[in-house]
Amino acid sequence: MDIEEKLKLMKILFNPKNVALIGATNKPKIGSMVGISMLGCGFTKKIFPINPSPSYKNKKILGYEVFPSLDKCPEQIDLVGIVVPPNAVVDAVKQAIENDVKTAAIITAGFGEVKTEERQQENQELVKIAEKGGLIFVGPNSMGFYSSEDKNSPLHLGFGFMLPKPGNVSIVSQSGTMGTIICNALQRIRYFVSSGNEASLTLEDYLQYYAQDDETKTIALFAEGLRSGKKFKEICAETTKIKPIVILKAGITKTGARAANSHTGSIAGALDMNKSVFKQTGVIYTEEVSEFIYLIKGAQYLLPLPSSDSLRAGIVSGGGGMGVHLTDLCEKHGIKVVDLNLEPKGPKLIEDISEHLPFYWSQNNPIDMVATRNPTAFRNVMDLMLNSDCFDVIFTMTSATFLERINMLKPDNEYGKRMKESMLIMRNNGFDQIADYEIKMCQEHPDKKILYVSLTPSLGNPIFDKYDENEIMVFGGNLETAAIVLRKLHDYQKYVNRFDNKK
Fold first, then answer.
1. pTM of this prediction?
2. Which CATH architecture has domain 306-499?
3. Annotation: CATH topology of 3-300
4. Integer Cα distance of 399 and 444 in angstroms
5. CB neighbours of 130 closer than 8 A, spacing ≥ 6?
6. Taking Cα atoms as reference points, which of 459, 50, 71, 68 lies closest to residue 292?
7. Residue 380: strand, helix, or coil
8. Is 185 in contact with 293 (CB distance < 8 Å)?
9. Among 273, 6, 34, 250, which residue's Cα sits nearest to residue 142?
10. What is the pLDDT of residues 352-395, one digit of tens each?
11. CB-based contacts of 498, cutoff 8 Å, min separation 6
């Protein structure tokens, strides 16, 4: 089957008019979890549970009438989910083909990843039957997929512990578990596929579908191995000119490559060769999970960035140490921490800032707020910096985690309790509005990139949900990540600009 035929069928796969679930059950099994996932993520179109057991005659599963086989369904089926035991998968696929179904998701494991002769033969038979019948499928050994192509009826045909909402990020993960972790960290998803063994559709196929989808703004890949390095390179070379591709590559050591082969049946390939392909094609590469998630967010929230050789950074910190550390990180990763004494408008900015801070402030960038008790000082200083022409990006500490920091205090005596109570009173006198203010500040200066940093982890922290809703970047836990992500995104921006300049 050529790629054009595949893409046409993938349109049905990702936006079916109905779904039949072969192996549906009311028992606490995968067949039940998949049905619950479909409903839990908002699928409103028709579902046809399929179970031949006489015990389901005249009964319902999740409120839907149960049918003994596909041919008993009252209408033509677009998509089948297959959640039967391994020895029944081939028959389920045959049943789908006999009923002119062209798309499927096979959740069941026990095929290409199992290196016994019997399971390899079963896998080959599955592929041969599907190809002959003109059917494409996700998996096997997959945790399914999510699609919000129809935002009014998003589909999660899978069993991962995730409840995403429609968004603009499209993901392929060769690990179901890693994929669900990524989806939970990002929340707003266009497409997510746990590609499994890729016996039919491969990572490269999904990548090509995402590349031509106008609603996909960022593509994210968790890859253990590639089926077609040449095809991957060709797609990436064209796609990265218009939308970023971020990849977390696993299986980069000899032992990891062996594990990848036993997990998905893929071959991890030489790391140096992969890195070379990523660099040539503008793919944003990482080997760290948290960095991967921040890169995906940053690609949405921070791009486009200025195209200058080095980004000009301003740093505002409540105390000196954090500012010094951020300065080191920026310089280490090629980000210029602006010396205001050397900027044309820098001395005037120093003078203006001095009106709001004690005389012993740092008198340069990074700006140390010296723990001033002036409640309006931070706002005034940030306004001055944002309205100056000295910075492309500004790093500053978020105060939204103040309450969390207070709650970490474990007083041992009455005086300690009084101190904690005093801090809570301070919080109640204005800290509730901090998130709203920090978000508003970003919205009022869309041309300036504000990066909030915190030693409190931000991934999965509900404190920062509102920031994500407004596409505002918060780096938590590891400040090193903030500088690395910004540098990699800027490298991507410079890569894209090379093509813009040729137009």
1. 0.91
2. 3-Layer(aba) Sandwich (3.40)
3. Rossmann fold (3.40.50)
4. 19
5. 93, 97, 104, 136, 137, 199, 200
6. 459
7. helix
8. yes
9. 34
10. 999 999 999 999 999 999 887 777 898 899 999 999 999 999 99
11. none
